[in-house]
Amino acid sequence: MDVFVSREIPEPGLKKLRKRYEVQVSKKPRNLTKEELVENVAGKDALLCLLTDTIDRDVIKAGDELKVISNYAVGYDNIDVKAATERNIAVTNTPGVLTEATAELAVSLMLSAARNVVEGDKFVREDRFEGWDPTLMLGHELHEKTLGIIGMGNIGRKVAQICKGFEMDILYHSRTRKEKVEEKIGAEYTDIESLLSKADFVSLHVPLTDETEKMIGPKELEMMKEDAYLINTARGGVVDEEVLIDFLEEEKIAGAGIDVYADEPSNANPGYYDLNNVVLTPHLGSATHRAREGMATMAADNLIDVLEGRRPDHIVNPEVLDN
Ligand code: NAP
Ligand code: GLV
Ligand code: GLV
How much is the pTM? Predict the structure, then answer.
């Protein structure tokens, strides 16, 4: 069997694949172009790809022998799952192993934005610190504030759990109500309007889909409190970025912590760069040694399971297994 891996991933995953198959790994230190993807998937039995690879209908069609597309990510908005399903190709992802890493990043964005951590760092490096000052860079505490989680899945739940440690009140909105989570964490289910109007911190944890695209637009931002913060570690496209930038510029909300951008895979949004009330990270949610190794192993296991005729632990389109 022939496997194509679109970029170097941690060795434990590659090792598993090399033990069983002919494995070709792209050595390019960048994302592949569409043409390169098309060329490399032809004749391969399996593709292990990244969230930065756009696996559209054309790439899938070029993969005439593909049985599985194993995404090295939990989000799979980069893959045309419908096109894959039509061709009976299994699509798999890597949930769970990156939950803690991503949740911790979301919380660190909350803390950094609300306590001027990045602004403060810059201030000191610019040699402007002249001693403790009673009114310097006053921010907000997380303690006993209200957190609004949108998308109460693995990561949303973990963020809520961590924030209980700050004695925050937890509101959430999700596609389906989760009574067990409400009991366990002490979270309250609300509609999105009431969440946005009550929360001091709004943290987004939905996947990017047709339904969630720009779900945070002008109407939603208008509902947020003036001293509230928006945290996005989900996908850039979930927010109307241009409107958010206007709101931050006009200080209609207190600030934001942003890890993901609408123009990915290649760009962030320069509109953010001059704003002091936003903390930016370069899509680092799962960027821990543990999470990335776990993702590599899981992506390899998913791929191997499909090629060996077993049901993988994490499949996005299980209907292909029943055919
Ligand atoms: P998950 O467990 O599947 O959670 C997603 C949650 O969103 C589910 O609870 C889901 O549905 C809910 N949801 C889906 N559509 C919705 C809608 N239209 N309205 C309201 N809620 C909706 O996934 P996860 O592991 O927590 O990951 C969430 C997302 O985070 C991923 O899809 C990915 O895009 C992003 N992510 C980013 C990073 C990063 O590096 N920044 C890292 C990992 C993941 P139910 O309410 O029906 O359960
Ligand atoms: C990261 O963004 C992921 O979806 O795994
Ligand atoms: C601050 O450093 C304090 O001691 O209150």
Answer: 0.97
Residue 219 has pLDDT above 90, yes or no: yes
- Averaged pLDDT, 48-72: 98
Task: Return the structure tokens found at 291.
Answer: 């999470």
Q: Is the CB of 176 under 6 A from ligand 1?
A: yes
Domains in the chain and their CATH numbers?
A: 2-96+289-320 (3.40.50.720), 99-280 (3.40.50.720)
Which of 120, 76, 73, 82 has the alpha carbon at shortest distance from 101?
73
7, 283, 292, 314: the active-site residue:
283
- Ligand 1 atom at shortest distance from the alpha carbon of 287: 40
- Please tell me the residue having the least CA distance from ligand 2 atom 5: 73
Rg of the chain taking only CA atoms, in angstroms: 21
283 annotated active-site: yes
pLDDT at 323: 67
| Mean pLDDT rounded to a whole number for the chain | 97
What percentage of the chain has pLDDT greater than the value 90? 99
235 as an active site residue: the answer is yes
Q: 191 in ligand 1 pocket by Cβ < 6 Å? A: no
- Which of these, 98, 71, 57, lies nearest to 316 by C-alpha position? 71
* Residue of 235, 241, 292, 314 with catalytic role: 235
> How far apart, in whole angstroms, are the C-alpha atoms of residue 3 and residue 256?
41
- Whether 98 is in the pocket of ligand 2, judged by its Cβ within 6 Å, is yes
What pLDDT digit, counting tens, does each position of 79-94 carry? 999 999 999 999 999 9
